Amino acid sequence: MMTASKPGFWMVVRRECRWLIHDRVALLLLLGVPLFAFVVLTTVFSHPVIRGLGVTVVDADKSDASRALVEYIAASPSLKIVDRSGTLSTAVQDIRSGKSISAVYIPPNFDRDLKAARRPQIVGFYNQQFLTPSGIASSGLSDSLSAAAAVA
Questions:
Q1: Going by C-beta distance under 8 Å and a sequence separation of 6 or more, which residues neighbour residue 128?
Q2: Which end of the chain is more exposed for a tag (fewer CB within 10 A), N or C?
Q3: Contact assessment for residue 129 and residue 71, using Cβ atoms and an 8 Å cutoff
Q4: Bridge-partner residues for 105, per DSSP?
Q5: pTM beyond 0.85, yes or no
Q6: If we measure between CA atoms, which residue out of 84, 20, 88, 33 comes closest to residue 54?
């Protein structure tokens, strides 16, 4: 059985409401700060998936096989080729400037090693300063290499 609330409860509620109306800082802390936190967190987490991370490709082989590998990298949804530089120094500049998050180096004789059934070494460089994007870039590059290896 429900009992009626005591008159002291409503007196406390009225006293607290009067206090909040007169104390603007308390009203701001009670309503403004949680609303601000909600807006900030909603904005931060509104993009669920990171896509189109910049990658610089250094193709030292320039063969048909290396161009096919570059096309597999370009087809990855998490990666976007922003530069096809000729040297590693320009790739490092791209990473340091923030133009790209990673660089891929395709060594010379890539096609020859691939045809001779040797395992060519493709090197990926990542800016580990940003852990999540570099991990996603690493995963996208790994998926691209796996797809290219399955075709080759």
A1: 134
A2: N
A3: no
A4: 58, 123
A5: no
A6: 84
- pLDDT tens digits in sequence order for the chain, 152 residues long: 566 666 788 889 899 889 888 888 988 888 899 999 999 998 888 877 788 889 999 999 888 888 888 999 999 888 999 999 888 999 999 989 989 999 999 999 888 888 888 888 888 888 888 888 888 888 888 888 888 877 76
Beta pairing partners, 79: 53
Helices (H) and strands (E) in the chain, counts: 7, 4
Please give the structure tokens belonging to residue 52: 């189109």
Element (H, E) at 53: strand 53-59
Exposure string for 115-126, b = 16+ CB within 10 A, e = fewer? eeeeebebebbb
| Alpha-carbon gap, residue 91 to 80, rounded angstroms | 14
Rounded-to-5 percentages of helix, strand, coil across the chain: 55, 15, 30
Q: Which two tokens stand for residue 124?
A: 């990926």
